[in-house]
Amino acid sequence: MAPGKNEPVRVETIVVPDPGPGEAVVKVQACGVCHTDLHYKQGGINDDFPFLLGHEAAGVVESVGPDVTDVAPGDFVILNWRAVCGKCRACRRGRPWYCFDTHNATQKMTLADGTELSAALGIGAFAEKTLVAAGQCTKVDPSVSPAVAGLLGCGVMAGIGAALNTGEVGRGDTVAVIGCGGVGDAAVVGSRLAGAARIIAVDIDDRKLETARAMGATHTVNSRDTDPVAAVRELTGGFGADVVIEAVGRPETYHQAFYARDLAGTVVLVGVPTPEMKLELPLLDVFGRGGALKSSWYGDCLPSRDFPMLVDLHQQGRIDLGAFVTETIGLDDVEKAFARMHEGDVLRSVVVL
Ligand code: APR
Ligand code: ZN
Ligand code: ZN
């Protein structure tokens, strides 16, 4: 629980209501520590303290409310923070991954004294149990490790989806990934899965480049000492990459992504910028270089389609999602995990319950 802006997080007793219509209570087995949790704690998302943090989670459905038919008690599920409504204009047009009316549980979890908790991304899974909308639960093969499965609930799905869904990386494509944290590395994994011929990892930290190579990058560029645009062009016959994935979320790295791409190529922005950031580009270059400049929300994933598929590929050894779990920790260690994340020491710390 994050009690107030920049205050240390702490473990508290919470009250989880019985599930109402359309809701489910999930016994959490694992939950990754994501940057967004830290942003909540720092007051960077909104001021609705206290927050119940944690949103990259997997667990077992304990009980469901009336009218819930998609999941049942005992199901092993990954939680998602974009439950498809089925009724909004995106859903009606057959693009449910864009759902504009995603929903969460209606009831609130509270502290023992009745204070309402704001659940991070409508999940709140640094807890033994959490209350969510049933549509936030996606059933997957229960033989996968919960620590691995939970990561698909946010950052790893965002990165893989940035390559597969948003960037539509295809066989033989050249791809550059700028920023190789958990999200960028997942974009490397997604690009490899899609059959990319070259995957160029760009970062300012050699440790990150080493990990990116282990995940499937074929080339690495340290952009602290090398101009990444020139380097990517050199590695792609002088042209630039077909798809460039920006997984930092800063104007300067977006600028690099824009120019490191071939004519008519695709830029995917999956890194999340902050409100004060501005981008300046010659409009003539935006026109003249053609192609697509896309943003990737949650990897444009469709949980019901993508979560089970990626778990299956992991179980078959065709992708290694275990490589994203740097350490498993207890519920008491989240504050320490934030510090390690800040130092860039971990891809993911995962709370295991
Ligand atoms: N150029 C290249 N790489 C950079 C730069 C830069 N100017 N600045 C930072 N990086 C690298 C870091 O070295 C690190 O490897 O970007 C990576 C960011 O990784 P993480 O901090 O682990 O963040 P991650 O979880 O991967 O998320 C990346 O996506 O979901 C969003 O909010 C998230 O904006 C963040 C981004
Ligand atoms: Zn919808
Ligand atoms: Zn997250």
TrEMBL record:
The keyword Chloroplast does not apply. Residues 4-353 form the Enoyl reductase (ER) domain. Keywords: Metal-binding, Oxidoreductase, Zinc. InterPro entries: ADH-like_C, ADH-like_N, ADH_Zn_CS, ER, GroES-like_sf, MycoS_dep_FDH, NAD(P)-bd_dom_sf. PROSITE patterns: ADH_ZINC. SUPFAM superfamilies: GroES-like, NAD(P)-binding Rossmann-fold domains. Its cofactor is Zn(2+). SMART domains: PKS_ER. It comes from the Bacteria. PANTHER family: NAD-DEPENDENT ALCOHOL DEHYDROGENASE, S-NITROSOMYCOTHIOL REDUCTASE MSCR. Belongs to the zinc-containing alcohol dehydrogenase family. This is Alcohol dehydrogenase. It comes from Streptomyces fradiae ATCC 10745 = DSM 40063. The lineage of its organism: Bacteria, Bacillati, Actinomycetota, Actinomycetes, Kitasatosporales.
